[in-house]
Amino acid sequence: MAIHTLENGRLKVVINEMGGVIDVFTYGDERPFDILRPRIHDGTNFAGNSSLFPMLPMVNRIRDNQFDWQGRRVVLPINESVDSHFFLHGNGWLTQWQCQANAECEHTVLKLAMASDIEGVCHYEAEQTYKLDGDRLTITLCLTNIGDEVFPFGIGFHPFFHCLPDTLIKFSAQGIWLEDVHYLPTDFMEHIPDVFNFGQGKTIPTVWINNGYYLAEDGVNIILKHPNRVAVVVTSPCRYLQVYKPTGYSDFLCLEPQSQSVNSHKTLYLDDSSNSLSILAPHHSMHIVMTIKVHEW
Questions:
Q1: CA 297/CA 227 separation, integer angstroms
Q2: What single DSSP character describes residue 18?
Q3: Which residues form the signal peptide (predicted)?
Q4: What's this model's pTM, rounded to 2 decimal places?
């Protein structure tokens, strides 16, 4: 397990090659404030305990853990130690990544890479770039199809943003997918229930949240304002955002920019807003970007 630290005097990021995850992201020097929830230390190196992990070659869950693609049934593998029913968040977060040689400043930029051959499913390679620049962290995730066939891919980021009891959140959306008992999306709705509508800004509710949002063309633009006067602005061109928190007060909120909506593999042949996968021919690539900007208000 290799750990890398990026810092520029204002921001500090600790990156773990196991899973290609972030373990720590703080703001400030004398009394650092956690921008992301710090890694939970339980004696394991499980990526789900990290501050942020990548999702690839697909995100979240697919109904029945299988889908039809070009005349064949694609059955996804299951890792019983993670989820007994689903190929949860893909396998990129469970894979060893490797640091890449980097000509830029080693204190503010890091590149990681990995490759995976999922038997009967797909063969891909991926690269993540983490870059600190002044008051912001930018993460780029790129996936390339290195298989012999065209395949539908989706990628995303799964950050756990640190929250205080009176943290305010604001973002606009064009619609929402609620969830069913299997944590999978119900039908898309343009009307967003008040409790899940953050368009005007409000404190984070105590209800369970596990919903997908469809965003405007400019993508993700989220503002978190903490009572200690630290503000966090999250931006990404992605038009799909999954939001998760457990019931009750939570010291984290997952705000997950994604290239696809959840369960899109089941709607590949439907002409609607959930048809969001990237169909990549061999040796073709896709990428997403997320920027986390920190300042005081």
A1: 10
A2: B
A3: none
A4: 0.96
Q: Which CATH code is given to the segment(s) 3-296?
A: 2.70.98.10
Assess contact for 142 and 167: CB atoms under 8 A: no
- For residue 223, the cross-strand partners are 170, 233
SS3 content of the chain, % helix, strand, coil (to 5): 5, 45, 50
Distance, in Å, from the CA atom of 246 to the CA atom of 45, rounded to the nearest integer, reads: 22
- Report the distance separating Cα 184 and Cα 64, nearest Å: 10
Closest CA to 196 of 236, 169, 223: 169
| Cβ neighbours of 229 (radius 10 Å) | 9
Contact yes or no for 14/130 (Cβ under 8 A): no
Query: pLDDT digits over 39-68, tens only?
Result: 999 988 899 999 999 999 999 999 999 999
Condensed to tens digits (0 to 9), the pLDDT of residues 201-229 reads 999 999 999 999 999 999 999 999 999 99
- Alpha-carbon distance of 27 to 11, in angstroms, equals 5
Dist. CA 226–CA 233, nearest whole Å: 11
Looking at residue 93, the DSSP 8-state letter turns out to be: G
How do the domains of the chain map onto residue ranges? 3-296
The predicted-structure confidence for 177-210, as pLDDT tens digits, reads as follows 999 999 999 999 999 999 999 999 999 999 999 9
Q: Residue 253's closest CA among 196, 296, 291?
A: 196
> What one-letter code names the amino acid at 259?
S
Q: What is the distance between the alpha carbons of residues 152 and 247, in angstroms, rounded to a whole number?
A: 34
Q: How many angstroms separate the CA atoms of 205 and 151, rounded?
A: 39
Query: Residue 159's closest CA among 10, 293, 3, 290?
Result: 290
